[in-house]
Amino acid sequence: MIKEQTASFLKEIPLFNVLEGADFERLLGHAEMHSLSKYDFVYMPDESAGKVYFLKKGCIKIGTHSSDGKEVIKSVLYPNAMFGELCLVGGDKRIDFAQCMNSKVEFCSVDASIIMTMIQTNLKMSLKLYEMIGSRLISAEKRLESLVLKDARARIIDFIKDSIEKNGQRIGYEMLIRHSLTQQDIANITGTSRQTVTSVLNDLKKSNLIYFNRKSILVRDMAKLA
User: Fold this and answer.
1) Burial category of 177 from C-beta neighbours within 10 Å (exposed 0-12, middle 13-18, buried 19 and up)
2) 159 shares a domain with 135
């Protein structure tokens, strides 16, 4: 039963849905499901990097700490996301952390060596991998551009828009984001302070552009959110 559930999940991952027959069975033989709780770490900086992970349930934040100990969140991941993939391009040690943000987080690990062997003989899979890593790089570049060129309000709005693009749910003419982020988390993502996040969210709420609580943000009109 567990093997069937793992197989069903892996077939949803863009990197693996091009595999068939013996190739997919080989992958399945090197895949392992895991379950962790809120605040647990999947991995920490400087740990050996030998596995790639795929998120099935819950949210995970990828981050690091500045020289003064401040947490910096690089990205927030939602189901079907790949993470820990730098070991596929030569990273033998983790440079960041991956931490669970929900009471129950489920994910699958696959040996990096198996993925590397398979992409060497499967053109479709290698192209999928380049596409996924390329998309991650574009997202990181956009975030860096936002941090450098935009003010705090614009960065927080960019965060809301990006979250909608990645994990938004349409409700009529509105868009709903369900999340597990504190306002301090949002501040750590956008390079602002918790007080600034509170002020901007309250201002957007007063303008009837959004409604928010601890678990979600409802965007009333995407076109007017600026």
Assistant:
1) buried
2) no
DSSP symbol at 94: -
Query: Residue 214 belongs to a domain with what CATH number?
Result: 2.60.120.10
DSSP letters, 157-185, are HHHHHHHHHHH-EEETTEEEEE----HHH
In whole angstroms, give the CA distance from residue 167 to residue 205: 21
What is the phi-psi region of residue 70: left when phi exceeds 0, alpha when psi lies from -120 to 50, beta otherwise? beta
213 and 111, same domain (yes or no)? no
Q: Is residue 214 assigned to a domain?
A: yes
Domain total in the chain: 2
Which residues pair with residue 106 across a beta bridge?
A: 35, 57
125 and 92 within one domain:
yes
The per-residue pLDDT for range 62-114, each reduced to its tens digit, is: 999 988 888 989 999 999 999 999 888 877 899 999 999 988 999 999 999 99
Secondary structure of 111-162 in the HEC alphabet?
A: EHHHHHHHHHHCHHHHHHHHHHHHHHHHHHHHHHHHHHHCCHHHHHHHHHHH
Q: What is the CA radius of gyration of the chain?
A: 19
Residues 193-226 have pLDDT tens digits of: 999 999 999 999 999 999 999 889 999 988 888 6
Q: Are the C-beta atoms of 219 and 210 separated by less than 8 Å?
A: yes
Structure tokens at 114: 């198996």
